[in-house]
Design goal:
248 residues; globular
Length: 248
């Protein structure tokens, strides 16, 4: 009897610690940089990420808000959400890990937000303001989209516009850096049209919020000009759900 009880307890623990793939509904993958990352599942003091800790597995950004809303509103759909944002990633970094973090998941819905670290690469050059390499950015972006479409021609794609605001590091020479960010955004918008994807105009969203008479200061929405605050993430999630749909 004790052995039987022990087995029951063990099986119960296994059920409750199954990874995020235990569900059976549509798979929705969010992938990109730190804005998507949201510190998801990160173990204190190290880079390891948990795929079983359902208290932290979605991070604390717009992706978490979207996942929480859809899962709460449609439990019968048993949606499977995945966060594969990694802080500091450029589109080339996504390309390097696409097999493991995108193709092996094989999502039904693929949401990509990347670009600000491609801009930061240029910003960090020591010989003054430089131009972004939009040709390379587009080529790498096309590569990951082509690979996903080749694997699943029916995959639904959502492409998000990169964004900055004149806060923190971007205040100096903001006109130049904003023009470079807009060039990357134009590539994303073009690709969204070509790949029949949903385009999320996040730069436009934050521009509108910046000019809202109720906004006390720009850092209310984006605390360092790159990373949204909790309020900014909520607005991002609202736009994502508005453009993608109330039900997936």
């Amino acid at each position: 009897m004790n052995l039987r009880k022990s087995l029951i307890v063990l099986l119960s623990l296994l059920v409750w610690t199954l990874p995020e793939t235990h569900a059976t509904g549509k798979k929705i993958l969010y992938i990109g940089d730190s804005v998507t990352d949201g510190n998801w599942g990160k173990v204190s003091g190290g880079p390891n990420r948990s795929l079983t800790d359902m208290n932290h597995i979605f991070g604390h950004g717009y992706m978490f808000i979207c996942a929480a809303r859809y899962m709460a509103d449609y439990p019968e759909e048993d949606y499977r959400f995945y966060n594969r944002g990694i802080s500091g990633n450029r589109v080339a970094d996504l390309k390097a890990r696409w097999q493991q973090d995108a193709l092996e998941i094989d999502p039904d819905i693929l949401s990509v937000l990347v670009g600000v670290n491609d801009l930061l690469d240029v910003y960090n050059k020591t010989d003054g303001p430089q131009e972004v390499d939009t040709a390379r950015f587009e080529a790498d972006y096309r590569d990951i989209l082509d690979r996903s479409r080749a694997q699943n021609p029916e995959v639904r794609i959502i492409l998000a516009e990169p964004f900055i605001l004149p806060v923190g590091m971007w205040q100096e020479h903001y006109t130049h850096w904003r023009a470079q960010c807009d060039r990357l955004g134009a590539v994303v918008k073009k690709l969204a049209k070509e790949y029949d994807a949903v385009f999320l105009p996040y730069q436009g969203l934050f521009d509108k919020l910046a000019h809202d008479a109720r906004t006390p200061k720009l850092s209310y929405w984006m605390w360092d000009g790159t990373h949204p605050t909790a309020a900014g993430h909520e607005k991002m999630a609202e736009l994502w759900m508005q453009r993608v749909g109330s039900k997936l």
